[in-house]
Amino acid sequence: MNNVLFKNIIRFIILMLIQVLVLNNMNLSGYLNPYIYILFILLLPANINRSFLLILAFGTGLTVDYFGNTLGLHAAACVVIAFMRPGTINLFFRNYEFNGNEEPGPSSIGYRGFLKYAISLMFIHQLILFYFEVFSFSNFFFTLSKVLLSTVLSIILIMIAVLLTGKRKKK
What is the pLDDT of residue 168? Predict the structure, then answer.
């Protein structure tokens, strides 16, 4: 248990430092906004208490909001994906039984399964974040293009991070 807690604290700190010191300061033509900090929420243990998951997601989003001066947008998007995470795990991995503190990462569900899981939650996060940011449907397709491009870039960065730090699949 302490190993899982220590691992997640270190993961949170590293992802937050990358997000607030590097990725938040990148200007990629106004379309691309990569968010790698979502990986923290994605890799929390699959059997985590749902209330605790929502609190962690809120704290994670609030941390990014504080450093990015975004007034709760990230907190709202993170809470929504944390709320949808257990259902998404059940939808994609209905036949897989997670043990104890096992995380839904590539080492347990494979890279293809992790990619489906990450893309779906990342797309929802970006959709909520960008549409709450503009709070209008007047430029619907422009905002949708930002959502899609940012999702693709974020998933690429997340998969690079997972490939560099993860273990191979056990099976």
Answer: 55
- Quick check: 66 and 24 in contact, CB under 8 A? no
Structure tokens that stand for 28 in this block: 């990629």
Pick the closest to residue 107 from 50, 46, 59, 36 (CA basis).
46
Contact 53, 82 (CB under 8 A): yes
b/e code 14-33 from CB counts within 10 Å (16+ = b): bbbebbbeebbeeeeeeeeb
Element of type H or E holding 51:
helix 50-68
Contact 116, 110 (CB under 8 A): no
CA–CA gap between residue 118 and residue 112 (Å, rounded): 10
Q: How confident is the model over 109-123, as pLDDT tens digits?
A: 999 999 999 999 999
Number of H helices, E strands in the chain: 6, 0
CA distance 63 to 68: 9
Backbone φ, ψ for residue 28 (5° rounding): -110, 70
